[in-house]
Amino acid sequence: MRNEKELLELINVHLDPPAAEIKRKQNVSVSIKQENLIQALSFLKSHSYQHLSTISCVDWLDEGEFELVYHLFSYDDYINISLKTRIKREPGVFQTAKEIWPVAEFYERDIHEFFGVEFKGNDNLEEMILENWQHLPPMRKDFDTRKFVNDNYEWRDYNGQKHTD
Amino acid sequence: MNNNFVKGSWQEILDWAQNKSINMLHYCTGCGAIELPPTMTSRYDMSRFGIGPAATPRQADMLLVTGYLSTKTLRRLIYTYEQMQAPKFVVGFGSCTINGGMYWDSYNTIKQLDKYLPVEIYIAGCMPRPEAILDGLLKLKKMINNGEADGYKRYEENLEFYHQNQEAVLGEVQRTQ
Amino acid sequence: MIDIIYRIGHFILITLFTTALGLLFMGIARKIVARIQKRYGPPFYQPYLDVLKLFGKDAITHGFIFDFGAVMALGGVIATLFFIPLGSWQLYSMEGTVLLIIYFLAVASLGMAMGTVGSGNPQASVGISRALTQMLGYELPYLVILFSLIYRYQTSSVWGLMQAQSGSFLNWNLFAYPLMALVAFVVLIGMMGKKPFDAMIAPAEIGSGPVVESGGKYLGMLLLQKSITIIIELALYVNLFLGGADNIFSFSFKMLIVWILATMFGSLFPRFRIEDGVKFFWKWPLGIAILQALYIII
Lengths: 165, 177, 298
What we know:
- The complex is a heterotrimer of chains A (about 160), B (about 180) and C (about 300).
- Chain B is of the alpha/beta class and about 180 residues long.
- Chain B is built from 7 helices and 5 strands.
- Chain B has a 5-stranded parallel sheet.
């Protein structure tokens, strides 16, 4: 049963991350380099962080990078850890975490559908929420939602008054 | 008594019977479906007007589209609508079926239900309270009694228009026969 | 010749009367359940309007077997009306009618099964297999009861069993063999498909079981079949245990009492699974029926 400070010491000693801090009570955020991420995940899993809550993705358009965040939880310590990495936006390729947690397959499928990130080693990357989607992956920041809707759908005509621009 | 008189009065009797007993297939597409249990249960009882639930599309008369429709749901809804038997009515429920509602600038929801299925009556609100639902359903019953609720006939006459709009949004839609 | 015309007219009258009474009973049941749930319900005459509306809709057919199944279900049930005495009306009376009625009710279920095969929907086959399995469950205590009654009164026609209870109302089988009447009441609830034994209709699980593909005219015919089935089963119960009646009105009144009790009982329970239902029927009702049968024989 560790508290947040002991956890931070453990991570600093073994993983040597560029940045690690306590955000608030029961919440620790750690940034890791891209090469060391899978090893960090297995290290934390063997130290009682056995629950992968989800994997999320943030699109930093100006810096040209995607940031992948892995949220882990431990039933012994009751602490949430967010592990963050940055990958380059242009090829947008990363390794899968499927061998450590089998459920990561679905989170990566979701991220592939909405951001276009390809995960090597995961061969089940077909679409599951959208159907017949042929355009840019919709959650990227250079996908203009308003323009897409104005091009593809028609607004209801209220006596000549247009609904929106 | 010529043939039209007999047909006309038989049609009036059928319309009267239809308005007294409607089977509703409530397709809970979106968040508006949460206002249906209060309407069907003891407080705002809907079965005293003769409206009761139906389990399958083959037994239903009325399709209640509650809330927003993503394109994935729209395809299944069209299959369901085409399985129902004439005479059938569609009621649009909530403001998402009227002009897109809360999701008006979403890339995946449709903005007007009227272009894909023939709608008899809209019930506005986000969401409408059970009193508003009952008011709308009573207006629908009056329309059926007068013979004005002919959405299914409009669908068959303007089939090209509806099919074109459906395929513009969905890509390819399977039709039977 | 006149006799045959008289009998045919009699038969048509009985069919129409039974249908109308059955639909009225269904309306009364809906009203009672609604009042138990503290709300107004649909009016009493709602099932008539339902049937009228259903015959005005288009219907989609799935081939010859589907049509024939619906007709066979309705026809089997109408043929049973030959043999039930309703009050003092009866068309044919002969030995062995008790078992003949049980057989004919099975024909109705088989007709529905044939319609199910014709429709080709897997949910319908699940529903009809559940219905026939449940029939296996409740037939066994019912047959024990019937055979013990036949042994006691030495006659196997329903008319004879009814006549044997004439005299004062203490002669009724309800008071002479009360345990048997109780078991028959539970079996009646299973036969009519009320909760807790309504897994074959199960709207949220399997569509509505065997009628999942029927709409329009077919559903109307199945609704009529259900209403006549209700009257047949209630009439059998009243004739065997409540002494029948002299005229049709007091007979209907007795059926109404039994129907109200069965509805109120059935509105309280959740649903049994099929295995639980069959196991229940083979445990307590069968045990009590066998005890009562031994008491009669010895």
